[in-house]
Amino acid sequence: xxTCSTDQLERFMKTYDRKIKRLLELPTGTKLSxxxxxxxxxxxxxxxxxxxYAHTHEPIAQFTIQQMLGCCGVCISTAARVYAPYTKRGxxxxxxxxxxxxxxxxxxxxxxxxxxSTSLGxxxxxxxxxxxxxxxxxxxxxxxxxxxxxxxxxxxxxxxxPNVAASWPAELAEAAR
Length: 177
Fold this sequence. Notes:
The protein has four helices and seven strands. The protein has helices at residues 6-24, 91-105, 120-128, 170-175; strands spanning 33-40, 46-53, 59-67, 74-82, 110-116, 132-138, 145-152.
């Protein structure tokens, strides 16, 4: 895999800045800020968290990609969220595109996620973007019905996504190769 410079990562984020500003119809000159972090555990699993904020430091959206324990070819999309008042404008679909590309670039073959059955917006985004529901169960801790979905990453084009793993600590970059 090619390495990722800070410039490449910044250009990638600016591309999504423009797309998000257009979707949300934010005024010209509005500055978005991105907070991202990467960390690894004892066994080298990767955790990538990305949050987008408006110029007022109000959160717009976030997601986390985490390597599945016990299988380095599968990642888990978790904590994906679009904050009110930014919902129902297509941002969830855009962030889905972003995290699928990042997961593919990080070397994963499959992404998995869960959500509660009452989350109609998430169901709609997943169904429209190639995700397959594979299981549902009643969570004994919350009593809610949870839906498990997977997305094969083989057909995802990640050519415009920099190798974000190279900007991680050395042990994570190695784990993502």
